[in-house]
Each structure stands twice: as structure tokens, then as C-alpha cells.
Amino acid sequence: MTMSDLKNISKDDILAALGLETRRTTGDGLASGLLMLGIGLAVGVGIGLMLAPKSGDELREDIGNRYRKTVGMAHDENATDQSTSRSSTTSATGMGSAGSVGHKPV
């Protein structure tokens, strides 16, 4: 090894020989990460617009109808659950239909 070889050794060469590397700051990867995120969003939106089977108005109407249907089903299930729990409570207390003569169920 000559003196000119020693002059050409960099800090990264020494750290690599020791199995180390220079510390990277948060800002080093942030710019490239944001760039990749932006590219991914642009590609995703472009593909979504090209493959969309419906117009925007039709899609919003379809989503609204599905939402209303789901909420309606949830209300129906909730009402069924409440009536089932009431009937099981009256049966458990022994006050079923035979024990509640003259009283209307609530």
C-alpha cells in the first residue's frame, strides 16, 4: 500500500471496513418518501378514473343507497334484539304470557 492509496481513502471507506455507515437524518429519506407517495397517489387516481364503471353522480347515489340500506338493517336488528331480550327477561322471571293475565306487554 502506497502513500497515494492512503490519500484516496474516504471516511465512508473506513466506516465500511468497520461494518458501519454514516448516520442518515430524517430529512434524507423524507423528500424521496414524499415523492414516492405523490407518484403513487397520482397513478392510483389515474387508474381509478380510467376503470371507473360509473359516473361520479351515479357512484355517489349508489353509495348513499347502500348506506341508507345498511343503517336501516342495523335499526331493524336493534329493534329485533330489544324485543328478544324483553321476551327472554319476562320468561326468566316466570312472568310469561300465563303470569301476566290482564296486563299488556310493553
General description of the model:
The chain has 106 residues and is mainly α. The protein has a domain at 54-90. 71% of the residues lie in helices and 0% in strands. It has 4 helices and no strands. It has helices spanning 3-7, 11-17, 26-51, 56-92. The radius of gyration is 35 Å and the shape is elongated. The model has no long low-confidence stretch (mean pLDDT 77).
Specify the helix fraction band.
Answer: over 70%
Order of helices and strands: HHHH
Low-pLDDT sequence parts? none
Number of helices: 4
Q: What is the multimeric organization of the chains shown?
A: single chain
Distance between the termini: 99 Å
Q: Determine the structural class based on helices, strands and strand pairing.
A: mainly alpha
Structural shape: elongated
Reported for the largest beta sheet, the result is: none
Mean of residue pLDDT values: 77
Give the tally of β-strands: 0
Proportion of β residues?
under 5%
Cα-based radius of gyration, to the nearest Å: 35 Å
